[in-house]
Amino acid sequence: MKTIKQSLQISIILIKIRFIQFYRMIKQLGMVYTLLLLVLSILVMIILFQPDISFNTSIVYSSVALLIVGSIHFSRKDKQLLNVLGIFIPILYLAEYSLLTLPIFLFLTYKHNFIAILILVSGLILLTFTNESILKNRTTTLQSFKFLGNHHFEWIS
Question: What is the pLDDT along the chain (157 residues), one digit of tens a residue?
Fold first, then answer.
């Protein structure tokens, strides 16, 4: 296991790679679609972040942000790569997820909703130390109908 300082340096490099990936995605998308997506995003943010935010709404913002980050966290496909690197993975997760939730964090800070900020930050910290997938141990069983034999089905191959 690498030290915390080495893990932080590797995490910064991996975040730079994420920004390069984002830049390539925007470049492939094209200027017109990028501008359209930017305008739509700004309109959505104006509608969502209205000036008359209530306490309950701020908690909803924190909860929705945690649900989105949680869904990203539990569906990550790079966990084996990060384990091979031997870094302290929660540092990377916390850095990435903090960047993702930065607009909501800044908005809640501006509105002085410190309980919602506490919910958001504590949820992010809990997520970073959760490394097991929810779906990993999930098994589904299908009911079998014993009175229906295989000869009752048409198999297409």
Answer: 567 788 788 888 888 988 898 889 888 988 888 889 888 887 887 777 676 667 788 888 899 899 999 998 988 888 888 878 777 888 888 989 999 999 889 888 888 889 999 999 999 999 998 876 555 555 555 555 566 566 655 555 5
Helix%, strand%, coil% for the chain, nearest 5: 70, 0, 30
The Cα 157–Cα 154 span in angstroms is 10
- Dihedral in degrees, nearest 10, Cα atoms 57, 134, 9, 16: -70
C-alpha count within 13 angstroms, C-beta hemisphere, residue 149: 1
Cα–Cα distance measured from residue 71 to residue 127, given in angstroms and rounded to the nearest whole number: 10
Q: Are 106 and 49 in contact (CB under 8 A)?
A: no
Q: Give pTM, 2 decimals.
A: 0.68
Identify the residue whose tokens are 């309950």. 56
